[in-house]
Give the backbone structure.
Amino acid sequence: MPSHAMAAAPLPEELDVLVVGAGPAGAAVAAQLAGHCRVALVGRAVQAGRAIGETLPAAARVILSDLGVWDAFAAQGHRPAWSRRSLWGSFEVIFQDALFDPHGAGWHLDRKRFDAMLLEAARSRGVPCLVPATLRSLQRHPPGAPMRWRCLIDRAQGDTAHGPLELSCRIVVDATGRAARVARQAGAQVHRGGRLVCFHAWVEPPSHEHAGTTMIESDAEGWWYSADLPDGSCVIAWQTDIDLPEARRLRSTADLLDMADRTALVGVRSVGSQVLEPLRVAAAHEQWLDAASGPDWLAVGDACLSFDPLASQGLLNSLVTGSEAALAVRRSLAGDAGALPAWDAWIRPIRAAYRSHHEHYYALEPRWANETFWARRQRAPEAGNGAGVIAAPASPSERWHSSAGTRPA
């Protein structure tokens, strides 16, 4: 079936809300708005091959239940993340067991199946989902018009309806990830902190002795991450700054695995492993907007706030902000002029907590304090020099659980 067939419900020319972006944040917004307003979703197709971003903390069970997809998620068979081994700050391996986590074990995901489940949740509730499609342009209607935005959508190549699709809507939700396409076109400024990238590859490990274990290990020019996935493969990832010498020399999966082989923890999965997909490089720097919302628009997920992967909160942040944004949108549609400005005010403390905890967790690694990678993260904080957190009390998940009286809508 061609992918553009996902627009099972008819796509009206006038909408209350257009969600741009078909990832977890966009699907969460659309699913929560279904039945409350005229909403549609447009987004790009899922990239070929495997997808990075496989970890979901146990606290996500609450938001998955709230989204009405817990049973579907549980049936997908994602691998529980029972434990974590880390070499960080000393040469002693630290072992953490999920039995001592009040939320229990998190999960290592099959990201493609997970993302497809969320998109199906929106579609099954009657949300027209045009995927693949891209937003070509966004223009404001004249003041006083009932519809605020004129949107031109480029449909998938090969779609039987040729030419761009023109829609009008009252509110646009930016769920386009780091690209922040809607926010940029609406006039928001995108700020970037640091040069962090993630070199990663998927391999078949030599054994499954450490199944269910997440491994984190620092080195002089960055840090390593490895997790096993539901299909028996595992991901091996190295985070570093793109301008550092080792990053410039790294050209292939073989180069990455040669480096991994020399590590104390991750090496148990890389030595003797079979390469499943070629090396990939993904942006991993912190990114934020000067404003997460504006007149008749707001941003969710990575579009409004991208985390250093050390936080292990990016996917949860997408679900939480997507779900909460739907409430803000509903209030705005009902005539609350303060609902969208309140969204930006709600996002700001999340980033503030994230940045403060970044200093703490990177400062726990003193062994390479004079190396460029670590010196950048352990010096006095300055504008645009953000990174990540490991597990902070003010993470998106904790804020979502503890702020029942302070939601933005």
Summary: The mean pLDDT is 88. The longest strand covers residues 165-174. Residues 84 and 227 are 9 Å apart (CA to CA). The two ends are 39 Å apart (CA to CA).
